[in-house]
Amino acid sequence: xxxxDQPTEMTATEGAIVQINCTYQTSxxxxxxxYQQHAGEAPTFLSYxxxxxxxxxxxFSSFLSRSKGYSYLLLKELQMKDSASxxxxxxxxxxxxxxxxxxxxxxxxxA
Amino acid sequence: xxxxxxxxxxVICKSGTSVKIECRSLDFQAxxxxxxxxxxxxxxxxxxxxxxxSKATYEQGxxxxxxxxxxxxxxxxxxxxxxxxxxxxxFYICSASxxxxxxxxxxxxxxxxxxxx
Lengths: 111, 117
Hints:
heterodimer; A: five-stranded antiparallel sheet; globular; B: 117 residues; four-stranded antiparallel sheet; 0% helix; 51% strand
């Protein structure tokens, strides 16, 4: 079956760094995505990893280890507006197949 | 970037009625669109894959006769919730991908919040 695990909630301080972990067990693997979702809004794309290693994009970085079925999203210099849910999603098939989403991690940034 | 719109953004309907939700790709053509449903504090659950010009592919447990999907053009897919019941109240989100490049990145619409009374 498909299983994507991530912590339910996390709290971090403004200006700090937070790492959100994601582990997956899927029938196939063709890329891992991270999305940000504010309450009542649609998800917005943050990052994409298909090869092992770290992808950096401004304050956000994402890491992938395919052998371990593991990814993390790293948020630096946290801002209050970063309070949101962060969704880990895996594409488990070739081409334009749908994504399998984890339940999301609700991040609260406090002053 | 690619823009996907949904209409309406929210709707309240009475039990037993039908509701149509539109998903449009505004600046690109999408041969495939996806429909998701999200309950409060839950993740996105894929309902169906909508393919232009052919029948939709439904996920296990999703009633195709209740959730009618039509993908009549490369920029429009519609989801009709027929004979709605209160348990159908949810946040419905569509997504579309350009279908080019390695990532096949999905762009999400803003979602439609359906409340059935």
